[in-house]
Amino acid sequence: MTMQRPEAAYFFGTCLIDLFYPDAGVSAVQLLQREGVRVIFPPDQTCCGQPAWNSGYRDEARKVARTQLALFDKPLPIVIPSGSCAGMMKTHYPALFRGEPDEDRALDVAGRVYELTGFLVDVLDIRLQDLGAPVTVAVHTSCSARREMGVADKIESLLGQLARVTVHEQAYKTECCGFGGTFAVKEPEISAAMVADKTAHIRATGASCLVSQDCGCLMNIGGAFAFQQREQNQPVPAIRHIAEFLWERVNAGPAATGEA
Amino acid sequence: MAMPTEFRIRVEDALKKDEVRTHFRKAMDTLMTNRRNQFPDEAELQRLRTQAQSIRANALSKLPELLEQLESNLVRNGVQVHWAETTDEANRIVLNILQQHNARSIIKGKSMVSEEMGLNHFLEQQGIEALESDLGEFIIQLDGETPSHIIMPAIHKNKEEIARLFNARFPHIPYTDDVDELTRNARAILRDKFYSAPVGLSGVNFAVAETGTLCLVENEGNGRMATTVPPVHIAVTGIEKVVEKLADIPPLFSILPRSATGQPVTTYFNMISGPRKPGEKDGPTEVHLVLLDNGRSTIYSDPELLATLRCIRCGACINHCPVYVRIGGHAYGTVYPGPIGTILEPQKEGLRVHGELVQASSLCGACGEVCPVRIPIPDIINRLRHDGVRQDGGSRTRDAGTRRKRLEAVTWRGWSWAASHPSLYHLGSRAATRLRKLMPQRLGAWTRVRTAPALAAQTLHERLKALGVDHE
Description:
Chain A is an alpha/beta fold and 260 residues long.
């Protein structure tokens, strides 16, 4: 689905970015502003409700989701720098609110949700000029960005515009990193085995930076990288949310040199 | 800390076996590549999936009528039809038939429903020998194991293990670890058994209501032998395997082997339409079909869970599952492993016994993406997680609500309250970022292989406010 270039857009920052990765959120907003889009950040936003939804606690998820539904009254696109949270709002809100009094509102919101890279490429047709030094990166696409939002190719298309960024492809590229929200806590052994393989495959590419559309995956993979560096004293790639990476490249920031 | 569950113990055990994990990875890689090569055209694949989905969904939408039609057409063809609500009933039906023929042994083609019934064990207790004739099933039977995969039951064994096993069980045959020779040896052993067995047993891939035809998909010819050589053939299957018309078969038979093993077609495709007729030279004189419910009616009664029954047992979801490839089939502790087992077993056997399986998924969606009949497996996993903890009585799923834990429920209620009160959320998030240095560096299982995530100095809310971003 594409739409005309909007003059304004809502920005839903996600709780993970709010608390752990605000740089990613700020960069995403700046990228949108750079394209002439007036960004509206409703201050009452908290969380999309996905953690409870995926844990089976639907009433609890709905209560939180309902709080978000009230924030996007104008008929503007809602841009989310995460395939996972966008997937929740776009593909699961309709199920979560089925038969509820605010079902129509949920469908309206779901219909206006865009994952950031999809929005930058498909709606804004963004053009990027690479001001950074040559760098090699690996890309990890979250399962929800790939399968729920269908935006796996958008991150590649954005990186493709950067003249001095070389993408190295890791083995088992499309495989899940093992985060899965509460999965990492409920099935820690399986999750650990998955992230061990994922980090090994990424490190084998020799890329100096890993970029992703999702901070959940970055928390998992990046946490494992940091652990491997600390415990095994091994060199590991830096991690960057795609928004932060792009912002740094077009402004010759730290990721331009591939430094952590 | 709570005692680790049996599932967790099996998982930890499986993850320690590096060699087995490497072996599974190689095997699944091959299967995934083979499948991909069968569908070079993405649009064509999606068209075939839609077609297969609609055939199965159509059949399920009129399941009671089609089952009646199937029965009357089978009876007209001379097949004796038996209905079993439970696996115990199904076992007794089979036993009855065997007793009528004074049969002390049966030879079996591959059947997951017979695994579901625990038929071999049941018959053994009655002093009746049940011999598996599918090579994979034959191998695991020699080792007293259960299948670790629904179409490749011995996939967890490498050829050296199989060679040692054959040598131990058949010491008169010279040792070999040559695959072709091992197969030849198994074939020679089984050949005699086919000729002497009074009864053959098989599963069913598709049962055609319109014609009363039982279709059996296989590669080894053992299915054909088991259903044609012994004087009596018993087929066992779940009630969901029915399809409406004969014309439904080619699309399903096209997508099944391609999704399963990545073969364009299997070596054998059997269409069984009744016992030997007067003047015919071969075929069994008696054919029976046992139709098993075992919880399927309950699944059928829920519009969302019904999709579970579309399954054509290709195993593609298993082959593509990042959890299965690491823990293997036995860790699940169920008849059906992998994603399909994760949704089927808790419904069939109840959430009390197998409800834990629905947590063992990262909801990555690889299963749903490859399913030839588009079963929304991740959505059903999510639904079963809900069924496990819900208290509204809104689900007929066996043992609904029994997986609710007080502490977890209280935690989610607290989270929900905080995240639906923005001022409270902001107070909490600001406090957390200010006190970030106090955050524990050890977070249970998370920090066994990862560092603890670091809270930011300032929240995004604060940063964007400082930057003057519109907060309307």
